[in-house]
Description:
Beta-carbonic Anhydrase, Chain A, 6 strands
Amino acid sequence: MKETLDLLKSGIRKFHAEVYGQRAEAYRRAVSEPQRPHTLIVACADSRVDVETITSTGPGEVFIARNVGNMVPAFGEIPGGVGAVIEYALDALKVRHVVVCGHSDCGAMKGLLSPASTISMPYVERWLTHGLAARRIAQATHEQTGRDLLTVLTEQNVLMQLAHLRTHPHIADALARKALTISGWVYDIATGDVRIWEDHHSPDTFETISPD
């Protein structure tokens, strides 16, 4: 609707007045030099997850792939956009870190827990199969810990997508050469907290990044 486009136009004007105007040189430099992002972030397409704001990054610093549920299909399945992003980020851009970022109140995770809710969306239904193993693990373990099932699933899905990530040859090669590190994040929309899993953590441990 026209009202929606007008809202977007207003946002563009605000960007020019309040953001671009103060960082014009950084934007001109970004387009005059090849991009050199240090990190690839696979995040959910949820409109409440603003990756650049969360990480305080600007133009050229992070390479981002977004999809429903921050999924990473395992290598060898039908070629798709996520695999192409991974190849380009590792081979052409030489990123040094890869993040899989989930978040609280994720509609994709709710869809995994309530399959009937996605019957009318066959593409979504098929896409969510990349999280089925995570659902099995979450359902088997959440009662033992007394934790909320949706929270446990969100974490397990991040860990499962990291496992899928490791099946991609460019990732496996870079990890073997110690040219790459990976981490899993869960962003809490309500509090702004980010909990991070790193390689040296125990399998299911996400540590909250505390404000300085």
